[in-house]
Amino acid sequence: MILDELKAAVMDGDAEQVAVLCRKVLDEHLNPVEAVEQGLIKGIEEIGRLWTEGEMFLPDVMMGADALKVGLEILGAELSKAKAAAGDTDRRGRIVIGTVKGDIHDIGKNIVSAMMTAAGFDVFDIGYDQGVDVFVDKAEQVGAQIIAASALLTTTMDEQKELVEYLKSKGLRSKYKVIIGGGPTTQGWADGVGADGWAETANEAVALCHKLLD
Description:
The protein is of the alpha/beta class. It has helices at about 1-10, 15-25, 30-50, 60-85, 105-120, 130-140, 160-170, 185-195, 200-214, and strands at about 95-100, 120-125, 145-150, 175-180, 195-200. Strands 2-1-3-4-5 form a 5-stranded parallel sheet, with helices on both faces. The longest helix is centred in the middle third of the chain and has 28 residues, at about 60-85. The protein is globular and about 50 Å long.
């Protein structure tokens, strides 16, 4: 069954097979919502569980996240159409996520992005080395509720503080929840820069977003 094949392909980190299967979904006019929710996302959820339990390692997680991204890119447009046609607008919230300016590390950010997508959030990943204005412009464009900023270098952590200050300067601070993460960051740092939350792991980031939006 194609749903099981999609799940297995994500778990195997086989982006090429995911692409083949997603195109098959489109060619055979199969349900793209089921393909994503019962195939792709089931695969990344299982990866997340195995990673949390120490049974899967970071390279495997990253390959799975990349495979998921390929699938979402192929099915994204049809998924939106199908949900709109069904009157399904019940998403958990919209999140803009990226790695801050001066920092090209995106492994952790990619994992968090994939896990947030799997949890049902609409995630807009702006990539790495992005200025605070890019985060905010994207959040304004898509109507996000949360802005998530990652920093993996001690030299770029100040960009997370700058993001909060930039929102204040634009009169937008109360409009968005700002969450931060990354290797050198801590809860104390988040509190000090005025962020709304901090998470150490992808699973914690997902739980934090649920908490902030509930």
